[in-house]
Amino acid sequence: MNKYIVYDSSGCRETIEADTAGLAAGIYVESGDWEASTSTWWCNVTVVGPMKEGETEAATEEDGRYRRVRVAVEPDEPACSADEHDWQRPVALVGGIESNPGVWGHGGGVTIQEVCMTCGCGKKTDTWAQDMEDGVQGLTSVTFLVGQFDVEQS
Length: 154
Hints:
By secondary structure, the chain is mainly β.
């Protein structure tokens, strides 16, 4: 197990033991107390290490042990009135064409609109999402829109 120093723009800084820098970043983000969100967002963390025996200060960017890692933070799926959501793409509700309902071109990817046929919650998957912190595109995000559809009329 290696020791890494991990921090983000909030100023929070932790020493984490993990096999790799990527795993250390994931542990840092998973252990965070983040505000609830209905959409995917990305936590960009700095990972320094592995730290050498007895080393407590962060390495410099030049020594090759300093890296930025982007970790997707996925939204919790909202509750459904049934045991689980029944995600579907009926063209009458999500639009598009019969052979590929709910799918729309977006940048270098697509957006896929789905609806839970039980509770009317919308689910939008974007395969060309953008991290607003640094502008990187081509990421995948999911957004939930509770009550977006009236499924009783379909």
